[in-house]
Amino acid sequence: MDVLVLAAQKGGTGKTTICANLAVEAEMRGHGPVTLIDVDPQGTLSKWWNRRQADTPALVEIDVAEIEVQLRTLKAGGAKLVIVDTPGAITSHVRISRPYTSSATW
Ligand SMILES: Nc1ncnc2c1ncn2[C@@H]1O[C@H](COP(=O)(O)OP(=O)(O)OP(=O)(O)O)[C@@H](O)[C@H]1O
Ligand SMILES: [Mg+2]
Question: Is-above-0.85 flag for pTM?
Answer without folding.
Answer: yes
